[in-house]
Amino acid sequence: MERTVRIAAIQAAPVVLDLEASVEKACALLADVAGQGAELAVLPECFLSIYPTNAWAGGIVGDGAAGSAIWERMWESSVAVDGPEVARLVAECRERNLICAVGVNERESDRPGGTLYNTMLLLGPDGVLHRHRKLMPTFQERLFHGFGDGRDLGVVSTPLGRIGGLICWENRMPLARYAVYRGGPQIWIAPTADYGEAWVSLLRTIAVEAGAYAVGVCQHVTAADYPDDFPLPIEAGSTLSHGWSCIAGPDGALVAGPLVDADGILVADCDLGAIAAEKQWFDVVGHYAREDVLLPLLADGDR
Fold it and tell me: Which fold would CATH assign to domain 4-299?
């Protein structure tokens, strides 16, 4: 509990629909943060290598040809957990002595051409530490991503502490949060496509609820990040994602960020010893849980 962990939140865009270039960009960013002394690096949701933003995703409903073209290219730029792209990131973690969280579009290696999942991977020097598939794709995401089954909701014990978290608007789901809180996370990771004051407020709330450091990381994406041959129009000069990455401490105060409308790296030294004092007052799965009252109410369908 006395350990201090240097955490880096990396706000950047992938090389959209170019998997190999996005992996190389991720590796360069990991080398950068390792040079700054970071031990845990967090990359955004769907960094490998496109997030299906509502800025263009709705257009595929009325344009079947464009929809098919985007789906095919999205699938081609997705990753299998046991594939070479993840192995390349693990090798970078090994070289830099890092743990890395990264959002990917995951395809199933044993079912070519099958479902894609919005997945968060936790990687370390020895390999894949954890895989979590998003439970509930949000609105337009349901055109692209399958549903997670919840078996991967949990926390991983690492040399840096206990790490858990959720993807984007899963963080709005109280029961999903509580399922992860039960594992006692000390560091909460939240790769996201959300941004703005409401997102920062939610992340600060999670930090207080969990009694943990909460790391929210979003892409910063502009029209210039998209390839010229993208099948649907992107408004020239537009910003598709503004960022707002930040890190909150267990008392809810921001220790880094938010970083808005820019690429960049937020670095914070996070003292896990500060968690104990917060837990004395409020332990969401301990003395403050009251599962004896609340879980029976949920099971009975009482409202």
Answer: Nitrilase/N-carbamoyl-D-aminoacid amidohydrolase (3.60.110)
Domain ranges of the chain: 4-299
User: How many C-beta atoms surround the C-beta of residue 205 within 10 A?
Assistant: 15
Residue 62 class from Cβ within 10 Å (0-12 exposed, 13-18 middle, 19+ buried)? exposed
CA angle 195, 196, 201 (to 5 degrees): 105
Q: Order of strands, edge to edge, in the sheet holding 99-107?
A: 127-133, 116-124, 99-107, 40-42, 4-11, 264-271
The catalytic position among 45, 106, 170, 209 is 45
Q: What is the DSSP letter of 144?
A: T
pTM of the model: 0.95
User: Is 168 annotated in the active site?
Assistant: yes
HSE-CB at 47 with a 13 A cutoff on CA atoms is: 32
Active-site position among 134, 209, 270, 279: 134
pLDDT, tens only, 187-214:
999 999 999 999 999 999 999 999 999 9
d(CA 133, CA 45): 11
Residue of 27, 46, 93, 168 with catalytic role: 168
Q: Which residues of the chain have pLDDT under 50?
A: none
> Would you call 39 helix, strand, or coil by DSSP?
coil
Q: Cα(140)–Cα(64) distance, rounded to whole angstroms?
A: 15
> Is 46 annotated as catalytic?
no
